[in-house]
Amino acid sequence: MTSKTEPIVTVMPPVEAYDFDYIRARVDAELLSGSIAIRVFRIPLLAVPVGRTRRGGSFGVDNLAIALAVRDVLASFGGFSDLRIAWHDAPRSSYVVAWGDRPPTTWSNDDERLAFYGLTRGPALAAPAAPLRLSPAPSPRPHEAAEEGPESDLHVRKEDLHVSAQSPLPHRARG
Asked: Strand pairing partners for 98?
């Protein structure tokens, strides 16, 4: 005999959400004040209600039991109207708990998508991210680099390369 265990979904203050700082820079402050952090397993993520400039929202999960639990949690809060569960195949297969207006099947551009979800282009979205660039690491033994001569740039070893980006990925630093 197997026992059915309910998924554990925890409601937390919005500031506890992993993506709080990222969303705070992009959504109306009044909507943010009505948001909640939902923790499924270990990472709390923000659920922002609809209203004002935000027409819809969503929360992705891996299985139907968790989707049902998240839907039930959101139903007890204001701003999460027309709750529904949908199946999405992209970017990977998963369930999505959605609320508010139904989004169009296709977006004419990224600005239309951002407007639907009431988001603005925050600091990381204001300009296209700079491409990654490879740069040779400083030689730990400068005398060897000088001995190799001018052709040494043509024979850079993989372990001597560093990957750097101009803008950091959005994440919340934990203290």
From this structure: 58, 84
